[in-house]
Structure formats: structure tokens, C-alpha cells
Amino acid sequence: MKSDEFIREVEEELQREKLALLWKRWGGLVIGGAVAIVLATAGWVAWQRRQESQRRAEAARFAAVEQLLVEGRDKDAAAALRGFAGEASTGFATLARLLAAAAAERAGDQGAALADLEAVLRDPGADPLLKEAASLLETAHRLDRDDPKALAARLEPLAVDGAPFRHAALQLLAAARLRAGDREAAVAALRRLAEDPETPSGTRMRASELLDALGAPLPRATS
């Protein structure tokens, strides 16, 4: 009996080591892909708000600040966007803080990026969709440092069918489960991604590659 228990413990430890190696190899790609989806969707919302807004002067100023991002002046852009957010109407202020977080991250200031995202989450007047985007981005920032089980619990409601950012949330959920050493839950999240016809092609490919790496490949189509 003791011999069987020892063998089982060794096998479990090897499994944890394998998952840790997979996380080290793939975690950055998963997080990067999820963040890209969130920012792309948030950008679409920003465009819609600019088109619908009657505040012409505010829209023009917002566009001028955005130009700093286009020029790659991320540090300057982050500062300008925060200044704009402090004076703008709610919709533009939320967008500015999200873009400031992205600029701060690119500039290597993770603390400032988190502060920008937390400001969105604390804002009772923020657009719910953009607030959800901020929650996902904040989770992505914390994935390498906070308790992965707690982060997974936060992601579950954002990954349900029909949720606007479900593909990003599922990627992050798989990463959190993988980091926590829960192979089965990670595989389940990745299968949902790979089998959802609405999943972007690049994300679906990444999910399939991770499933292969985890030894749980999707069934191959037969001709």
C-alpha cells in the first residue's frame, strides 16, 4: 500500500512539473492573445462612441490624444490620456483610462497600468462592457502573481456562452487552470474555444496547439 501511495505521489508531482513547463512555454501567448481580443473589441466600442457622440470638441481632443499612441509615444500618451480622463464625460473617460492602461503596459509601467484599470472598475458610471474589458485586462496582469484559483473564479462568469469577451476569458481561464495544475479544467476551457464556431481563427489554432501539448488533441477530421 505504501509503495502504491509513493508511486501515485511521484506521478502527481511529475504531472505538476509538466503543467508548469507548459505554462512557462505557452502562458505568455495565451495572455497576449486574450489581451489583443479585449483591446480590439474595446477599440470598436470607442469608434462607435466617437461616431455617436455629439460632443464634437471632446471627440476632437480625444482623437488628438490618440495620435500619441499611433506615434508610439506610449509614456506621453498614458499621461495625456489620464489628464483627458479627469475632465472628460463618462464614456470618453472610460475609454481614455483603458487606452492609458495599454500605453502604460507597453511603456513597462505595470503598476500604472493596473491603477488605470482599477480606476475603471471603481467607476460606477463606466460602461458595463468596458468595465468587463477592464476586469479581463486586470486579470491578465495578475495571472503570473495572484492565486490562479481565485482568478479563475473571477473569470468563470465572463466565459459563459454569449458573453461579449468569452473568447478572451476562456483563454485566460485555461491559463489560470493550467497554472493551478488543473489539467482537466484547462482542457475543458480550451475545447470550448476550439469547438466554438465564432472563435477567431488564430485563437482557435492556439487552443488546438495547447490541446495537443496537453495530450488531449481534438478528433481529426476523416475524409
Q: Helix amount, in percent?
A: over 70%
Largest sheet: none
Helix count, DSSP H or I runs of 4 or more residues: 10
pLDDT averaged over residues: 77
Highest-level CATH class of the largest domain: Mainly Alpha
Low-pLDDT sequence parts:
9-14
Strand content: under 5%
Report, as a whole number of angstroms, the end-to-end distance: 49 Å
Indicate the radius of gyration in whole angstroms.
20 Å
Under the CATH scheme, which architecture of the largest domain would be assigned?
A: Alpha Horseshoe
- Tell me the total number of β-strands: 0
Assign the CATH topology of the largest domain.
Answer: Serine Threonine Protein Phosphatase 5, Tetratricopeptide repeat
- Tell me the overall shape: elongated
Class derived from helix and strand content: mainly alpha
Question: What's the quick description here?
Answer:
With 223 residues, the chain is mostly helical.
Explain how this protein is built.
By secondary structure, the chain is mostly helical. The protein has 2 domains: 28-141, Alpha Horseshoe (Serine Threonine Protein Phosphatase 5, Tetratricopeptide repeat), CATH 1.25.40; 143-214. It has helices at 2-52, 56-70, 74-85, 90-106, 110-122, 128-142, 148-155, 166-179, 183-195, 201-213. The radius of gyration is 20 Å and the shape is elongated.
